[in-house]
Amino acid sequence: MRNIRRFQADRSGNVAIIVALVFLPILIIAGAAVDLARFERARSILQDGVDRAALAGAALTQTRPLAETVAQYMENVEFLADTELTYSEQSFLTRRDVEVTAVYPLPTTFLNLIGIGSLDVTAHGAATQSRMNVEISLVLDVSISMWETSGKSGNTRFKNLKLAAADFLDALLTPETRSVTTISVVPFSGHVNMGKTMFNAMGVKRTNNDNSCIDFSVAEYSATTLVTLLNRAQLPHFIGYTPDPRNNNPEGWVAGVEPAKGWWCPGEETSISYLSNDAAVLKSRINDFILYSATGTHNGVKWGSMLLDPTSRGLVNTAINAGITPEAARGRPVDYSDEETVKILVLMTDGGISAQNRPTSNYRYPDRLTTTPVSTEGTNGIYLQRACTAAKNNGIIVYTIGFEVPATKASEMRDCATTVNHYYPVSGLDIRTAFQSIASAIQSLRLTQ
Q: Is the pLDDT of residue 77 over 80?
């Protein structure tokens, strides 16, 4: 009995017993931490692969099947062979949506002791890339002063403009973007030639066969809407200033540097190009431009903003039906409320606005008669700002390029632009940099992820 009582009172083996009882739970808890660390590492690797695969698959420039893209961007996942992948995509004209889900059953080491043989590591990624529709009016000064030598480049301003415009068109009308982009090119001297085809198709009242220009009323500069063209009066055909006496051609100015004529309204080769998405065609048109007399910047901006206004849709459809505008422009200009479209007007000019003169009767040089001023330079500057304000009030983003403009005229370009940051004062070949910068800004507006 004494030995039994002594055994019952002996506590020397308690620690070993307790340790034996708690060892397994401690082992499982410590092991679980290891398994969970492995789980988190696997989840991080899997999520990174899924995210990259989704982003690559959603790219609008992606031409390969989604399965191939996902496989490529997840090939660095070391346990890919044991991973179940599911993915889906929805493609639209201007948007692509992609979802990728991956599930990897991670084998456990310690949790297996309590019956948990694996942990499902799940990663999900979704990506959308959308490209906004873009409508652009490129309003270009083709006044006679553009033949002057430009800065230190050795080129004329006109030559540098053509180089810069070509860069601009190539940047914005790529194989990937041309389906959602249209660009109108609006050249202006004293006025803007809408082109014989459009002039005749829209029912403008023709009184001479030499030009296709129309005048605007004072009130029309304060709106972007399309003016009434049916039976509208045609601009008389006249020379704004006396031709240079060194040139025997009565229509010409100084021979040599660039082709130029003295007519107030540009000729057919220097007329509007309507909502095109063909860079080659637009560059060819610009390359064929000829310089003309005076600077009607307010008329250029009025035409440029009209070609971004939805009221011009019928005019554009007429151009499409006549075969001078691509079918891609059908339905444009879209409504201002369309959240998937950005409208942009880019104005380039090298100087101040001219007074607007008109002959006392309709005539053609050399039957020269006296011209009468119908609006002063200052008044036309007011019309320009009204046209710019009307465009901005409708959400049109206005960029302006002052190409070697006099300091006294720079304020007109700053005030016309959407903000001071949308105004580019440039000289020489810097005009190419300005156009490239604007193209990059448009691309930033166009592409979102």
A: yes
